[in-house]
């Protein structure tokens, strides 16, 4: 049984075959790491393990070959993942995004960015791909809470996310919006985390990626953790929270991720977030869904899209 609407299922429904994301490092940077700013305290290479030694075309060629062999994928999505993929002049962004036109099997474009790093001009460019491609933009939120965002040195607040979300959905409705949240921040108990799900369930998001907080070597968070060990979620605690969390989301929101993983040699804690534990984590989450008789939408209150009637001229 499928307990939630996965990205694989969504893509299969849309294209009728296996479609695979090809993660890219397009040599962007991030406004939260410039001028001596330390960035988000958990940030490791802008949330990507991809090296930027290859140019974009080579990365796509290599990624497509790998995905064809490993997943028998037939179509592909170019995923601009590392750092802030809208942080440049529009003409430079266009040059980078246009790479997808060289690959006939690429059917979509995914652009990961910060909600305070978007404007109408950039959205207009991104929207221009929607006639020929499936287009998603990913706005990292991580948490809606002021204190948590301040603690992680995120450099933006929930209001920035709302502004970006509504600008996108009201003016460019063909662009799909995914958001990222992290569960397990110190200072957020289960009740607060579930409140996040309830808040998001009332917003016009199309997808979500949910990650557990994990600590990587060389990040400011590693130093904080070394000085003062704060509690980290166990796998069972995470599975308990994430299954409840998903039960509050409407059934049409695509759950693009239910966990996050990192290379073993980089990971400080929790150890269950290493790449090799991924299947165990997925199985534990599915066991919790079954045991608790939960599924996506079960606890959703049905008030999504309160803002559907707002129009921007
Ligand atoms: S926004 Fe992304 S790239 Fe920038 S500091 Fe935070 S995690 Fe790193």
Q: β content, as a range? A: 15-25%
The major pleated sheet works out as: 7 strands, parallel
Give the helix level as a range of percent: 25-40%
Helix count, per DSSP? 10
Note the overall shape.
globular
* CATH evolutionary superfamily: Aldolase class I
In the sheet with the most strands, the strands line up as 1-2-3-4-5-6-8
Uncertain residue ranges: none
Tell me what you see in this structure.
With 313 residues, this protein is of the alpha/beta class. The chain has a single domain, classed as TIM Barrel (Alpha-Beta Barrel). The protein contains ten helices and nine strands. The strands form two sheets. It has a seven-stranded parallel beta sheet, sandwiched between helices. Strand 2, helix 3 (90-97) and strand 3 (106-113) form a beta-alpha-beta unit. The longest helix has 16 residues, at 56-71. The termini are far apart. It binds iron/sulfur cluster. Iron/sulfur cluster (SF4) binds next to loops.
Task: Describe what is shown at a glance.
35% of the residues lie in helices and 17% in strands. With 313 residues, it is of the alpha/beta class.
Keywords:
17% strand; two-stranded antiparallel sheet; binds iron/sulfur cluster; alpha/beta; TIM Barrel; 10 helices; 313 residues; seven-stranded parallel beta sheet
Itemize the secondary structure elements and their pairings.
Layout: H1 7-15, E1 19-24, H2 56-71, E2 75-80, H3 90-97, E3 106-113, H4 120-127, E4 134-142, H5 146-151, H6 158-171, E5 176-183, H7 190-201, E6 207-212, E7 215-216, H8 220-227, H9 235-247, E8 254-257, E9 267-269, H10 278-291
The structure holds iron/sulfur cluster (SF4).
The site of iron/sulfur cluster has 12 residues, from loops.
């Amino acid at each position: 049984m499928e307990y939630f609407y996965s990205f694989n299922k969504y893509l299969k429904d849309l294209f009728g075959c296996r479609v695979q994301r090809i993660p890219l490092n397009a040599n962007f940077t991030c406004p939260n790491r410039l001028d001596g700013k330390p960035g988000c305290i958990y940030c490791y290479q802008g949330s990507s393990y991809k090296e930027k030694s290859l140019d974009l075309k080579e990365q796509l060629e290599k990624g497509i070959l790998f995905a064809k062999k490993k997943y028998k994928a037939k179509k592909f999505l170019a995923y601009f993942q590392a750092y802030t993929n809208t942080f440049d002049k529009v003409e430079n962004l266009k040059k980078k995004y246009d790479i997808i036109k060289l690959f006939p099997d690429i059917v979509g474009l995914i652009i990961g960015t910060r909600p305070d790093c978007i404007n109408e001009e950039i959205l207009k460019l991104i929207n221009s791909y929607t006639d020929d491609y499936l287009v998603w933009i990913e706005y990292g939120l991580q948490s809606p809470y002021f204190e948590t965002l301040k603690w992680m040195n995120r450099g933006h607040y929930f209001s920035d996310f709302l502004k970006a979300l509504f600008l996108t959905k009201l003016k460019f409705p063909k662009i799909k919006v995914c958001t990222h949240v992290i569960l397990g921040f110190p200072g957020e108990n289960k009740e607060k985390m579930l409140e996040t799900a309830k808040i998001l369930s009332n917003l016009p998001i199309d997808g979500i990626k949910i990650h557990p907080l994990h600590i990587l070597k060389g990040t400011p968070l590693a130093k904080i953790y070394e000085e003062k060990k704060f509690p980290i979620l166990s796998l069972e605690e995470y599975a308990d929270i994430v299954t409840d969390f998903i039960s509050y989301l409407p059934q049409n929101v695509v759950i693009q991720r239910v966990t996050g993983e990192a290379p073993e040699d980089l990971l400080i804690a929790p150890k269950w977030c290493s790449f090799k534990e991924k299947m165990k984590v997925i199985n534990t989450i599915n066991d919790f869904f079954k045991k608790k008789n939960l599924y996506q939408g079960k606890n959703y209150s049905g008030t999504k899209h309160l803002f559907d009637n707002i129009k921007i001229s």
